Amino acid sequence: MRLAVLGTLPMAAVTAAWAAANAGTEVVYVSDVAPPGKWSTQVTWDGTPRHAQIERVRVGSHTEADAFLLIASREESITLTRQYADSMRGKPVVLAPGGFAIVEAIDKILNTGTSAPSPLGQLPGFPVTGDIELDNVRIRSVKQNFPLGQLGTEDSSALVATFRPWIPDVVRSTLTETALSSTNNLIHPPVLLANAARTEAGEEYLFYREGLSAGAARMICGVDDERLEILRALNQEAVPLTGWFRRYYGAQGLVGETVQEMLVNRPSLADSRGPKTLKHRYVSEDVVYGLAPMEELARRLNVATPFLSALITALSTVCESDLRAAAPRLVDESTILPMSRFAVAGQHQTPPHS
Known about the structure:
By secondary structure, this protein is α/β, with parallel strands linked by helices. Helices cover 41% and strands 16% of the residues. It has an 11-stranded mixed sheet, sandwiched between helices. α7 runs antiparallel to α9. This is NAD/NADP octopine/nopaline dehydrogenase.
């Protein structure tokens, strides 16, 4: 089995190396960020180095693989899928991160009019974070018990089994849970808003260590509480943000009981710097394709979202942009609402995890 990792986001190359080290086989990395050719490196996690072999190829070059992993923005994921549709058709494809209606958009490109559709799934974020050094990829954190949801089914077991050789920590989940459980969507926008003056001035600051105030943490928790109510309305498991942190990092020295304590004390986040502009993916991705459709979904479910709505309105004002414009279309195109009705009316059903 051969995996192809596509995307220009910084974590794409790190994920390709991580996947190659786990599987013990060569992984294809499709990107214009690095020159083409063989990349032989070691991957170090928890003090243990392992060998990784990656074949780097330019975007547009012919690529054959048995499975595809997109580590890219929404727009880049759609562009890459169109470019590699002939190679991807009939093969399993996973997006990291996923979101509202992105897997559905990929489905239209790959599976329209085919008798052998590609199994499509998404993760709620990056599987790993790390840094590329001279002859080593240093892994900073690994998300354990990482949910993988699949389009068209409440049981993603087959897709999980396909990708576990490369990403061993994935577990089965639902598309609804993964669309509504991105920790980045919940964290980045409130912290950015709390530091808008710094950001507009182009100041240097540590995003978590200096930017995560008590007020920003209260906003994160307020939005998270409303997200949990949306999940309950959809008959999904309602895992709070702190619960995800414990699942992901509980065995990696997680410190603290509150959102603020957990984030400020995470060694892998210590050097994370704040953006120097408000025109940043923390808004263009996390709000436009994350929080805004979540608010629209809540409206249709009659779930009140005062914290979420206030946050989106404030960011729309400071960014001079209508961040809600795409939300109705994204919810319309999403399969979340019809898929969520698998539970018997009036009964709460929690999808199992493996």
